[in-house]
Q: What sequence folds into this?
């Protein structure tokens, strides 16, 4: 890991966070940015085109990791900006390599935005199907129990 940086956001909304150090990234390099938040940095909208690559980006909630590629209307609110020409960067004054993070205060959920290449992740659709099956089973069990009690 090249850089770890901590900070607090004073309020919900978009914020630009300047990095404490310059992190050189060249064209074609693969890198990841992780953000931990007590809010959900994700938006859902069918009004905007979203251009994700499969396996990028991810969001982790608890023990589950979701590939946002499977949620075509989900928008990860994390952007990384770079400079086109870093030859004039000396030291860290007026550094242009910044991150803009949109934080929303939704339910105080602990979420971690992970932008990594990974394989074999549980997709949200699969998890939704499992949860619906579990919920359906619970409803049927409760209905059978209530019906049995009513017949007695």
A:
């Amino acid at each position: 890991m090249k850089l770890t940086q901590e900070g607090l956001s004073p309020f919900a909304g978009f914020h630009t966070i300047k990095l404490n150090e310059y992190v050189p990234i060249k064209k074609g390099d693969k890198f990841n940015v992780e953000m931990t938040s007590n809010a959900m940095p994700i938006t859902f909208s069918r009004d905007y085109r979203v251009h994700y690559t499969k396996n990028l980006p991810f969001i982790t909630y608890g023990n589950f990791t979701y590939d946002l590629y499977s949620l075509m209307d989900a928008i990860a609110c994390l952007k990384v900006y770079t400079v086109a020409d870093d030859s004039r960067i000396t030291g860290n004054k007026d550094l242009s390599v910044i991150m803009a993070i949109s934080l929303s205060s939704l339910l105080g959920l602990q979420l971690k935005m992970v932008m990594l290449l990974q394989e074999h992740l549980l997709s949200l659709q699969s998890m939704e199907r499992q949860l619906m099956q579990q919920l359906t089973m619970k409803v049927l069990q409760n209905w059978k129990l209530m019906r049995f009690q009513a017949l007695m």
In short: The longest strand covers residues 13-18. The two ends are 66 Å apart (CA to CA). The first helix runs from residue 124 to 151.
